[in-house]
Amino acid sequence: MTDTVTPDQTQTGPTGTPAPRRSYARLAADESREDYSLRYAPHSYRRWSPTMVASTALGGIAYLADFAIGASIVFTYGFTSGLASILTAATIIFLTGIPIARACATYGLDMDLITRGAGFGYFGSTLTSLIYASFTFIFFALEGSIMAQAMHQALHIPLPIGYLITTLIVIPIVFRGMGALAKVQAWTQPLWLVGLVLPFVVLAFERPDAWASFASFGGTEGAGSGFDWIGYGLGTGVALSLIAQIGEQADYLRFMPAKTEQNRRRWNLAVLAAGPGWVVIGAAKQLGGAFLAFVALGAVGTTHALEPIAPQIEALKPWLGSVALPAAALFVVVSQIKINVTNAYSGSLSWSNFFSRVTHRHPGRVWYIFLNLAIALALMEMNMFAALNKLLGFYSNVGIAWIAAVTADLVINKPLGLSPKYIEFKRAYLYAVNPAGFGAMVIASTVSIIAFFGVFGEVAEAFSTFIACGLALVLSPLLAWLTGGRYYLARPNPVNGPGVEVPDITAVHTCAECETAYELPDIADCPVRAGAVCSLCCSLDAECGDACRKRPKGAQSVPVLLPVPTVPTVRANDG
Q1: Cα(135)–Cα(515) distance, integer angstroms
Q2: How far apart are CA 87 and CA 290, in angstroms?
Q3: Among 234, 266, 318, 404, which residue is least crowded by beta carbons within 10 Å?
């Protein structure tokens, strides 16, 4: 089930031998399931309204890991330091998410393709594909553990069996792609909203004094109710582990229709809400989860208070009595299905991007669902939930270095002219590694990880994620300036000069390799094929030797293409 090539005597390679033509396996060729997993999302496929895209993207943040993370932070570091940590992390995540969300929605690209053109290079972003994939299976395992805990309490299903059920249940939905995900998120949203709000309504009537007591809570480990800088830094690091969530939001935002005069206001609002806006709800859920855990602490103990199912039951008991358990379990199961279909979907995209570049093979996105879920299941069986704070604190050092480096390119390098004004993601025009973004991420994450393990002292350990963020933001423009920005483009897009008329990017060109028509941004000019090739065929070509980047200076490009404009333009009726 891989892409295949067959001889075609009508084309020859650089040595005069027959050039192969590529045909994709059935699943890889079916875009209703593939969802353009390794490509630019064409305008012809972006059939959803801005509101629908935003609703689907926000449906994926129904997860209850926020409850567990918030409770863990407050229990460990106390209310005051915990609150400051949650709000600080949310602010950083929101600000770094704005430019990334707008870029993904504008250019129709996922996080990996944005990363390629935002200072990492074609192979440099391979490492970030692994970082992103690890985010999806770590959080799938965390969410799956929460769901298994609910099934264990409600139905007495052993946890190992529950882990397996939580893994298998999402496969049919994720297999079918964006269309199925959109329906699941829409159908379950009302039930989820009721389940989210009801416990707080009950406590507002039954325990009106609980918030005042919560505000003076000193944690369960002796941190105290006052502010502590070390606890604040460590807590922020845990909360910042969620920064890579913008990648999952981007997997939906790339299907945003083109922005036009008619939909401009709705488009801007939808991108803001579905992109960085997720963290506003996320921070509220972290604080709310900590509050529910605090209220349930005396009844269930510390261990169970950190498991979202137990606080839900305790909050609902005054009104629902014996029905509280099944009601809480239903809410948890629905919440976890909503997020884990997103985790599995995004994981399949990131693994596809990684293996297509490493192996030059693409059997189809759907096969990588099983790889991602197998790793997540193994983590669940190893009880990763018990090491929550340490695992997420470590991960955030790498995740924030990556996101901050991409943000720096979008908000500093491009406006200053240190990098191209548009996002170039195609192999044919990129260097393998760009030291600007890739170097910034590697240096920043390395220094912060060393700090995280206490080498530079207690303060640096607590603030390691701040070190990662600050270094990445500074190093990306610095390295771009030192290198003159010359590692962003291995060669320019043809006809990419002054006075060039901005093209209609919805115009299609036929790939000389797979003979399928793709919109202009997904096409590159290829001297080996003597014509246009699509970005995926270009990525999978293991025989060309990157000939397009090795031609003598002054050699003519194949004059069949126009550049991707700085801000993609389409006809008014395309939005």
Answers
A1: 36
A2: 14
A3: 318
- Measuring CA to CA, which residue among 309, 27, 298, 30 is closest to residue 153? 309
| Contact criterion met (CB below 8 Å) for 243 and 400 | yes
- If one counts every other C-beta atom within 10 angstroms of the C-beta of residue 499, the result is 4
- Give the whole-angstrom CA distance, residue 454 versus residue 452: 5
Q: What is the dihedral of CA 196, 198, 200, 206, to 10 degrees?
A: -160
Give the separation between CA 491 and CA 522, rounded to whole angstroms. 16
Can you read off the two tokens belonging to residue 163? 């882990």
Closest among 238, 253, 222 to 107, alpha carbons compared: 253
Check if the beta carbon of residue 450 is closer than 8 Å to that of residue 456: yes
- For the chain, how are helix, strand and coil distributed in percent, rounded to 5? 65, 5, 30
Q: How far apart are the first and last CA of the chain?
A: 36
Alpha-carbon distance of 369 to 173, in angstroms, equals 11
Q: What is the rounded CA–CA span in Å between residue 450 and residue 445?
A: 9
Q: Alpha-carbon torsion 109, 114, 117, 123, what sign?
A: negative
**How far, in Å, CA of 380 to CA of 391, rounded?**
13
Bridge partners (DSSP) of residue 523 are 534
DSSP for 188-222 reads HHHHHHHHHHHHHHHHHHH-TTHHHHHHT--TTTT
pTM: 0.86
Tokens of 403: 């996101």
Are 317 and 310 in contact by the 8 Å Cβ rule? The answer is no
Q: How far apart are CA 561 and CA 139, in angstroms?
A: 42
Query: Cα–Cα distance between 248 and 94 in angstroms, integer?
Result: 14
pLDDT at 3: 52
219 phi and psi, to 5 degrees? 85, 180
Question: What is the CB neighbour count within 10 angstroms for residue 20?
Answer: 16
Find, among 412, 405, 421, 437, the residue nearest to 493 by Cα.
421
| Pairing of the two strands 517-519 and 523-526 | unpaired
- Give residue 494's pLDDT band: very low, low, confident or very high (50, 70, 90): low
- Render pLDDT for 91-113 as a digit per residue (tens, 0 to 9): 999 999 999 999 999 999 999 99
Give DSSP secondary structure letters for 92-128.
HHHHHHHHHHHHHHHHT--HHHHHIIIII-TTHHHHH
Q: Name which residue leads in pLDDT, 367 or 436.
A: 436
| Bridge partners for 532 per DSSP | 525
Contacts of 378 (CB under 8 A, 6+ apart): none
Determine the average pLDDT of the residues in 272-300: 94
**Looking at this protein, which amino acid is placed at residue 80?**
T
Q: Are 188 and 339 in contact (CB under 8 A)?
A: no
Cβ–Cβ under 8 Å, residues 249 and 101 = yes
pLDDT in tens, 118-151: 999 999 998 898 888 888 898 899 889 989 999 9
Is residue 430 classed as helix, strand or coil in its secondary structure? Answer: coil
Q: In the predicted model, what is the mean pLDDT of residues 437-444?
A: 97
Given a contact cutoff of 8 angstroms between Cβ atoms, the answer to whether 71 and 293 are in contact is: yes
Length of the chain measured in residues: 575
Residues 225 and 81: their CA atoms lie apart, in Å, by 8
